[in-house]
Amino acid sequence: MTHFLWQQLPYCVALLLALAGVAYTNASHQPLVGYWEFLALAIGVVCVINKWPDVVGKEERLRLIWTQTLHWVAVLVAMNIVLVSRVQQLLPTPATSLVLLTLLALGTFLAGVSLLSMQIAFLGVAMGIAVLAISWLQQSVVFFLLAAVLLIGLGITFWLRHDRDPGGAPADTRNQMEV
Questions:
Q1: Domain presence at residue 132
Q2: Which residue has the higher pLDDT, 174 or 119?
Q3: Domain-embedded: residue 93
Q4: Residue 129 lies in a domain
Q5: Are 101 and 78 in contact (CB under 8 A)?
Q6: Cα 60 from chain centroid?
């Protein structure tokens, strides 16, 4: 069991680093350009290391390195297109981090499919699910905040209304008038 968990460690670390990147970007409102590039390169290295024992011969190993290099360079180019200042001006910073995570998830999933690696493909799927979960949580927080404001507003309105008599005079004055 320990050996299995040790084998899954690079994938878990990659997923945690991706989530940490989104969390930091959302908290600081600063895009982490170099961070996402590093993470894409690190996942590319994990892909090569994952498949290396299954590849025999110098030509096959060079092919593995070459195809993964091209694959991850394409992902990096797509990420940098999003980070170009004119494109980034159209997206708020938290949305930029989710778009970058989506590109990273897609690149990871496609690398897993091309390498026939369930672990890498699953890592891509997990990153994609994380994008959905993060965006849902962000929307839920806004929804809950709006609902709380609405309930507080209704509570104050009914409390103020309850505190008045049917004629509209405040309750304190009504008690004073009866005496």
A1: yes
A2: 119
A3: yes
A4: yes
A5: no
A6: 35
Measured CA to CA, the distance from residue 110 to residue 170 in angstroms comes to 69
What's the whole-number mean pLDDT along residues 14-26? 85
Over its C-alpha atoms, the chain yields an Rg (Å, rounded) of 27
Do 50 and 117 touch, CB atoms closer than 8 A? yes
pLDDT, position 10: 86
* pLDDT (0 to 100) of residue 124: 92
Domain extent for 94:
2-139
pLDDT of 76 reads 95
- Three-class secondary structure of residue 164 per DSSP: strand
Q: What is the pLDDT of residue 96?
A: 85
Spatial contact of 109 and 15, defined as CB atoms under 8 Å apart: no
Question: What's the structural domain count of the chain?
Answer: 1
Can you read off the two tokens belonging to residue 32? 């982490």
Global pTM? Answer: 0.74
Instruction: For the chain, give the number of residues.
Output: 179
- Least Cα distance to 22 among 162, 129, 110, 121 occurs for 129
